[in-house]
Amino acid sequence: MVNASQVEAVSSSSAIPQVKPYEYVLEVVNARKEFPGVVALDNVSLKVRPGTVHALMGENGAGKSTLMKIIAGIYHPDAGEIRLRGEAVHLATPLAAQEAGIAMIHQELLLMNSMTVAENIWIRREPRNAFGLVNHAQMHQMTTELFDRLNITLDPDAEVSELSVANRQMVEIAKAVSFNSDVLIMDEPTSAITEKEVAHLFEIIRGLRERGIGIVYITHKMNELFEIADEFSVFRDGHYIATHLSSEVTRDDIIQMMVGREITQMFPKEEVEIGDVVLSVKNLTLEGVFHDVSFDVRAGEILGFAGLVGSGRSNVAETLFGVTPATSGTIEINGKKASIQTSHDAIKLGMAFLTEDRKETGCFLPLDIQENAQMAVIHDDFVKYGFVQEAKLEKVCLEISQKLRVKTPNMHECIENLSGGNQQKVLIGRWLLTNPKILILDEPTRGIDVGAKAEIHSLITQLAHNGVAVIMISSEMPEVLGMSDRVLVMHEGHCTGILDRADADQVKVMDLAAQ
Amino acid sequence: MTTRTATAPNATLAAPSKKRLPQEISILLVLFGIAAFFEVLGWFLVGQSFLGNMSRLQIIILQVSVIGIIAVGVTQVIITGGIDLSSGSVVAMSGMVAATFAQDANWPKIIHPALVDLPWFIPLAVGLAVGAAAGFVNGWLITKTKIPPFIATLGMMVSARGVARWYTDGSPVSGFTESFAMLGNGMGRWAPVVIFLVVAVVFHVVMRYTRFGKFTYAIGANPQAARVSGINIETHLIKVYMIAGLLAGLAAMVAIARIKTAQAGMGLMYELDAIAAAVIGGVSLSGGRGRITGTVIGALILGVMLSGFTFLRVDAYYQDIIKGAIIVVAVVVDMHRQNKRSKKT
């Protein structure tokens, strides 16, 4: 299997004159991972050569993160094999992966903020003195040596909480190197650091590459790929698509590979009469998060919001709904300027907002279905002298949940006991009870089964038919393209374009989303 | 158009909910069990009936009333996901301040004697106002400075006790007017029990049937979802902490009227008894779950245990040890229930 001449090539180019009897430092072979309701990875393979930077590319939900977590021992594959330095390994825990020589630098850094740089690096491996106590002088020395080798200039005794994100990343990298790792996984390391810091980071990555470390580099940014990666693999919808040398492809090729699916799923899209502008947003800005976002939505129209995770789509929705009030810009509803400082303001103006994360910001898990459904409507309606009109509410909640086909024995079942799709329907019901004129849906079908998905799609169409102005945020490209009349694309806090349904296709959207 | 409305293979069908006993029933059974335990041991060890003694039962329920009134307020705070450690000190502070407005002109040792022989409702109003003010400060600190409720109310616990001592330089206040003393001794000495029951019923109704109650549960169940649902979390929390303070003030009035004296050391550790009553009654410390009825039964359990151990002549030190153990067990049971729930989803 292993080509002898390639082994030769690798070992001779390596700085260490040691024959490595393997071509790939890390191999993932036919890995499969299922979560309840979705196949996150289906027969995925990945081969990383020592001394290279191997980029993982793919849209949201392509399976990159799942694959990474399998390599780092956080998830266990349902099928398939991981080979490290040519030998099959079983990585039971993240610790086992670390000891086997795989280090991972998470997007949200996992350092202990109140401890020093040196303490963070040598935790559990602290040098001891004769009394069994930590030898700080030696630890300082070891850290300085490590930093010298990596060309990092940081004070080993600084507290991590005082460091910038970029410097914390350096600490994580140094820690990974201190384990003598052969594989280093980096998850979007440049997402939160400045350009200058990126340059320094790349320098360090190149240094690691020369030391023969195989680096798995996850990114959404095309230009980084060409700058730093030797090879790249593309994933789509949990499938492995292709691996290429980055020198032999163009940006357009990669976009084609990332989005090149055929849209087989049909959407119940109906041509409805588009009415007047209901919501008009001009130069909406939340300082430091998104800037100068402007768009109109008309009655009966579905405006899709596309963009990669973290591009600011959900932040715009939260600002529109008063969760995080805007720092500048105007919002007009039916031609009248609206001041939205709280969600209650937004509700009074006829808006409704299905949030992105059912568990975190949607459900009241300890409460029953009716209590979950009624919470947005009992501000002004269905309340007499402060008393909630339970009987009346039970009737309307029952009606709406029958209309949405929520599977439940009764309205007093705890929402925790429902499936994801049914929970989502109850939350949609919560907002339909308020009779919204403007409905904002953030990932309305995430993590729910196919049947419930189709039902929610027809419901959205029906609402548009009834003249509701709909904003639909989705990470699923087919859903955005299939349901929207127009598609607004965001990239790093800016609106990079609004496409008409006729013009919008996967390549154009991805082109605007990944600059 | 493909017809894919059929449910996916792994779609969970709505499983009919298992008919479980309401939690209150199981707590009530625990109460009966404990009472029966003392009854049996009573015949063996002391040679008399534990329950068949009307005056003992009256003492139990009278003692429970003061803690119970506080616990009704603390329960609401815990349901929002918070905690109130200041209740005991607030009892002392509002008790001391109100007591100086409740003195009889003929009493030889009048403290702050400017206002004497006032009608009963004036000291009552003063006590409630002091309690509510302390609650307002708690709520304001928690919502405006975003410090954890534990710290805010811990600060109030220390400061309010200080106010109680400073207010009379540590001297107790006695010599209340007849009409004020009725708050603790009226209705054939049942007044505290009646007040407790009224408070419990009122807030049971508030928590179950009003918008205010629904919002309280919503905030404890998921504050972010509550905010998106248009609930003004800050003002609501301030109101809840004010109610807790107000009820601590009311408990103080009942307590000083019953024993006819107020002193700065009163109400010591009441906050812990109140929290214990709520926790034993099934109120979840993680918020969003629990009922006033549970707390009432929880308070009764504490009262029966206290009386039972005294009846069996168990040393007071052992009583505290056992009480501490029971609180821990109640929380462990709560955590266990939570875990079982989260595993299901």
What does this structure look like?
The complex is a heterodimer of chains A (515) and B (345). Residues 1-17 of chain A have low confidence and may be disordered. Chain A has 18 helices and 22 strands. Chain A is 34% helix and 25% strand. Chain A is globular, with a radius of gyration of 26 Å. Chain A has 3 domains: 1-101 and 214-261, P-loop containing nucleotide triphosphate hydrolases (Rossmann fold), CATH 3.40.50; 275-350 and 436-515, P-loop containing nucleotide triphosphate hydrolases (Rossmann fold), CATH 3.40.50; 364-435, no CATH class. Chain A has helices at 4-13, 64-71, 94-100, 117-121, 136-150, 165-178, 195-210, 222-228, 251-259, 313-320, 343-348, 358-362, 369-374, 390-403, 420-432, 450-465, 477-483, 506-513, and strands spanning 26-35, 38-48, 53-57, 79-84, 87-89, 102-105, 183-187, 214-218, 231-236, 239-245, 277-286, 290-298, 302-307, 328-333, 336-338, 351-354, 383-384, 387-388, 438-442, 469-473, 486-491, 494-500. Chain A has 515 residues and is of the alpha/beta class. A 6-stranded mixed beta sheet of chain A has the order 6-7-8-3-9-10, with helices on both faces. A 6-stranded mixed beta sheet of chain A has the order 16-19-20-13-21-22, sandwiched between helices. By secondary structure, chain B is an all-alpha fold. Chain B has a domain at 65-268 and 283-291. Helix content of chain B is 70%, strand content 1%. Chain B has 13 helices and 2 strands. Chain B has helices at 23-46, 54-79, 87-99, 121-144, 149-167, 178-189, 191-209, 211-221, 223-228, 233-259, 270-280, 292-311, 316-344; strands at residues 173-174, 261-262. In chain B, strands 1-2 form a two-stranded antiparallel ribbon. In chain B, helix 2 runs parallel beside helix 7 (191-209). The longest helix of chain B is centred in the C-terminal third of the chain and has 29 residues, at 316-344. The model of chain B is unreliable at 1-19 (pLDDT under 50). At the A-B interface, helix 11, helix 12, strand 18, helix 15 and helix 16 of A face helix 8 and helix 9 of B.
